[in-house]
Amino acid sequence: MSIIGIIISISCGIFVYNQFVSSTTDQEAANLEATEVTNEQVNAGAPSNNTAFNPPSMDDVPDGPMKEAILYGYDLVNETHNTASDKVGANLSCTSCHAGAGLTEVATLVGVMADYPKYLPRPDDIVTIEERINGCMVRSMNGEKFEANSKELESMVAYFKYISEGVEIGSERPYAKSVDMKVIPTPSISDGEALYQKSCIACHAADGSGNGPNVGPALWGETSFNDGAGIARMSKMAGYIQAYMPIGNEKSLSDQEAANLAAYILTQDRPVWKNHHKDWANGAPSDIMTEERRKQAQNGTLNWDEVLADYK
Questions:
Q1: Taking all residues of the chain, what is their mean pLDDT, rounded to a whole number?
Q2: End-to-end alpha carbon distance in the chain
Q3: Residues 171-198: what's their mean pLDDT?
Q4: Which domain holds residue 194?
Q5: In angstroms, rounded to a whole number, what is the distance separating the alpha carbons of residues 119 and 112?
Q6: Which residue has the higher pLDDT, 21 or 64?
Q7: What is the 3-state secondary structure (H, E, C) of 105-162?
Q8: Are the C-beta atoms of residues 192 and 304 closer than 8 Å to each other?
Q9: Is residue 31 part of a domain?
Q10: Alpha-carbon distance 15 to 226, whole Å?
């Protein structure tokens, strides 16, 4: 090959190489730009697994075969003590804890169907929504279970499905997070009693019997929940009080004040759950206020260090 031919070949090779490098660099830049746009979109709020609080209106229940069941389910949740009086042992309704039949942000039930079935440590089993309802009936309502396939149970499930529309199974509901108190200070029952008499008797009465399930539910006594209910635990009662009480001035109580109130309420007499021995197969939390502990509190021998040892 002549010298001129060699020079031409080298020049062509350099040209082709430069074109390759240029196109590769341009493509990498384009890929980088695309990646940056994608990250910006994510950071700007691309779809997430969180669900916004958007309760449906009972006025919008659609006509059809499920309408009657949904409306009856709403009545059962809102007026449980009346609508299912033969099954309820306490003067309470679901609304006593889940305000407005679960349609408000106070212990809301909006989207509850997204959580079930799920594993619960107390029964050490995967439970359905039907089983969860019946768990509340025998504990919080101190009553009896609904029969499987009963109109009552099916209607409550229909209502829960209606208020869960648009909430995907397994999705996060940030508006329904646990309000359990994580670190409970050693409470004072006497201080709790003083605060109760000052701030709580208008709704719940001086003797804890309340002024009505949906106005001021019974907090202790024979018409209240039994000590197998979740709210009979210090962490849950103190957390609920602090998050939602008093109405109109929620979250105003300190950890100490909420713990004092919880201690006073949970050391008063109430119905006894007969199946504690069947609960918590893998170890019970320490803060369950049983009949034995109520008696110890009343005679001044309750060891709060034991109660608050391991409740998480």
A1: 88
A2: 86
A3: 96
A4: 189-307
A5: 14
A6: 64
A7: CCCCCCCHHHHCCEEECCCCEEECHHHHHHHHHHCCCCCCCCCCCCHHHHHHHHHHHH
A8: no
A9: no
A10: 87
